[in-house]
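Cross-posted from the bioinformatics board.
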Amino acid sequence: MNISKRAVRTAFPAFMLATCAFLWTHISSNSAMLDAVPNAVGPGGWPRAMLIGLAVFSFLALVTEVLAWRQAVRGGGDIEPPRPKSENGSTALALIGVAIILVYGFSIPYLGFALATFLFLVVWCLLGKVRSPLTIGLVSVIGTVVLLYMFVALAKMPLNRGAGPINEWTVSLYRILRIY
Amino acid sequence: MDLAALFWTGLVGALQPQNFAILVTGLLVGTVAGALPGISFVNAMAMALPFTYVMEPVTAMCFLGGIYAGGVFGGSISSILINIPGTPASLPACWDGYPMTVKGLSTRALRIAITASATGGLISAILLAVGSPPFAAFALKFDQPEFFAATILGLASVVAIAKDLPVLSALSMFIGLVIGTVGLDPLYGMSRFTFDIPEVQSGINFTVVMIGLFAIGEVVDLLAKDIDLKRSFAQKPGKQITTGELWGLKGSILRGAGLGSMIGMIPGAGATVGAVLAYGVERQASGRGAEFGTGVEQALAAPEAAKNATTGAAMIPLLTLGIPGSAATAIMLAAMLIHGINPGPLLFRTDPSLVYTIFVSMIIANLLMIVAAVIVARGFSTLMKVPPAILGAFIIVLSVVGAYGVRNNIFDVYVCLVFGVLGFIMKRANFPSAPLVLGVILGPLAERYFLTSLANYDDNFWIFFERPISATILALAAMFILWSLSPTLLTRLGRRTGVKETAASD
């Protein structure tokens, strides 16, 4: 197992332990009200029990990972043979992918579903090493139009149209496509 | 209404033109999704959810049932032809299916896999149809403590099944259980972990969590893997298999189907466990264990039958108790809830036509799977030419729309994206994510049953052990946990004994 994976596997339960400690004091905005309920368990009882469970298993996982790491170091390196290159993949590419997905999701209220999806399809194709402008154009334009027909025209979903002028642009697009 | 009349109603419902067409569509979609590496049938079901919003409940269930049945098999196509398992459950098909392809027996291997899968699925669907009604009648005796115990059994089995990773599975499950407590509490309506965000008052929807973890997380992981999807498979179809030769595999198929049906009923087990266990059992039972891994037909048939036999069986706890045992059945639960259907023992009385239409559609799906599998296997080379980048892009867009469509709220998209990132991290670090989802689903149920049990029985904590059925179910849950911990405990015990013996000999 490589160091970055070990670090994630160790940091994850440690982060969960810290989260448990934080959440324990933030179950409700009014802790006094939470405990004033005349019930054997009350609204705070179950979340507290779950937090205890999470803390216990986070601690166990942390200890297990630290011990395994120490054993690997003492044993003179990785306890598993390195994985083939195809399985290691490109972490940087994946992180860029994550960033693009986040930008896509968070931009929908501002750009609207149609424009944000079109741009996302273009960028994702480029990220996936699709270089043909014709392919990218066809995939993004036809893809967006088909998705709009499926969800706006057929499923009648009130997808975001964007803010300000983009809203007007989306409405015009919908009119051209005869789905508004 | 008697059983025959109910089956007739189910048959009429399943053969309605729109239901039948959507069932066939679902089968094809599932088989294609299952066959494409990196896109599991669970992803396909999660992506299909928004399409079900506009369907009638019966049609929606036919669609998802078709994807489920087709998808579980579909993974074997890529396993057999190009040695890449389309789904984790198709891994055993790589071990003996691909060696058959290498020997020039790809068509023979595919036919064995299709026949075994369809037979296993059919047996399981019949079991679902025959076994569910009496189980639902028995479940009518359940009160809140029994439902609580059944939920605990579901949670315990999730951890128990992950025998090699019990601590990480429990950690993942407890993350889900904590997420399940977000929002208003079920008895007093008091906000918990909401941090004054109005959208969180109604809790974190498990469908959104599922879409994020399974669909988005998988696509990002696929991007990082750099899989070569353009490998060509054997050109020669090879020697065909005769009906007589297929009949000779009946023992392996029946063993696999029986084992898969049993495994499928256990919440948390699923197709992967069923297939791997069936492979192990067949290795002992066939008498050709030493040859396994070289293209043995029994070694292909048994796990294939077991894999699809889990599909019908997994729906028994879903329909009779309202407890999903796997990610796939959790999506079906989501679809049912979206349409205002509450699965559980009462569903068999309030809407028997829906229940029997689901039964019959599962039987039909497994019969039609043979046709769907042949079509998909033939067009597989064309499908494999679609660049994964394009497939991935559409999966993400459909996931975003799916998350948005749950409540028509952009906040759910943000939540979905956060869980997508978490899913990617968990996948790269080999943390199991399915227990998290089951924790989010079963957590609120467990809390509600626990609190209402106490409210109904004068805050008596012992009520769960005083009632025979709930005590039995809890004992079963404890046995599951002990069984999962037994290898670790035995290893520790063995080490200590070894240390003592060494010390004594010194």
